[in-house]
């Protein structure tokens, strides 16, 4: 009698757990990853002759909460056509009735694995601004991500930055409609998952989750919750740690980082990480505006400068001009003395 | 403010200042008014030309080069006029004059409103 080797058992288990697709257009090649809501597989699109990624819900049965979330995620992604968001190509039902959707296969690594390449401020700013820009786009479309963290940001082979995992995203317009509807009717159960999440559910990741989310009710999480998560993500890019709750700890750890962010950049991060949503930037767009001012060497709304700081910033910003004027004056003085 | 105007104003101010520095040269102190007026006009012409170029072409390196060349050329014309004793102040006039051109070239490229067409 021959026993099956462990490798063979693993392969059989892998094949057995692969989803059964109703059509023969996609051929599952290998598993890529598994999260709380769904599993992602690399697959081949036989019709177009390209590799794609297929996300399948981990739901035990069709139409349960996880399945609905996956469907919602596909719809959210389909609404958001942006270079920072993985495009959805197709969606459908598995043989067992669960949902799947097909998206572009992104080759690269998550930000969590890419941290070593972020040695310099410029590299961190480039990645962070692309994430913030993508989130700003989503906010403009009325969608809040609610689970931004390093493992949900993908850096592609050619430097493209993609924000992943929109499974717990909240559609603001629908949420408002939902609120209005629930106000009109007394049926409290109608307040179901139109927004992609059920009311009163805690969603997100500790250390990157806004206080209002951590308090247990994610249904109140608006754009400022994403701004908090963006701040936490930027904090992580500087310190390698999740953001602490205490504002003094945030300042201390940013100061101890090597290299430490400048005062103005640290102020931007602190503003994002304010406990009260009203003290943060109202949306990722506002954050982007402040980052643009920072990059141009202008003053930022998060930091009130002293006169000395302002003068120093001006000198740095226009150093070539200042050096030319100084060179001229030195030359004039030198000629006066040489005579 | 448009770039040619910035060039013109900056050229006038720097030209006047450049002329006033002649106060430190006793041999020409009696002609200081003429020197300041002439230097200011030279600054205005150089500033306007460099500013006009910056308005047409947005490129820092090209702007600096044009500023240097135009200012050096006008400074050369001034330096070529001999002093009553026959002496020419080539270095004293051309070197600071060229740096003034660089300053105007830099300022007009960095500040002011251009045509919005970037040429790199």
Task: Please describe what this structure looks like.
The complex is a heterodimer of chains A (339) and B (120). Chain A has 339 residues and is α+β, with helices and mostly antiparallel strands. Chain A has three domains: 7-104, Phosphorylase Kinase, domain 1 (2-Layer Sandwich), CATH 3.30.200.20; 108-304, Transferase(Phosphotransferase) domain 1 (Transferase(Phosphotransferase), domain 1, Orthogonal Bundle); 308-338. Chain A has twelve helices and ten strands. Chain A has a five-stranded antiparallel sheet, with helices on one face. Chain A has a three-stranded antiparallel sheet with strand order 6-8-9. In chain A, helix 4 (121-140) packs antiparallel against helix 7 (223-239). The N and C termini of chain A lie far apart (108 Å). The model of chain A is unreliable at 184-200 (pLDDT under 50). Chain B is mostly helical. Chain B is built from four helices and no strands. Chain B has helices spanning 3-20, 32-56, 60-79, 90-110. The radius of gyration of chain B is 15 Å and the shape is elongated. The mean pLDDT of chain B is 88.
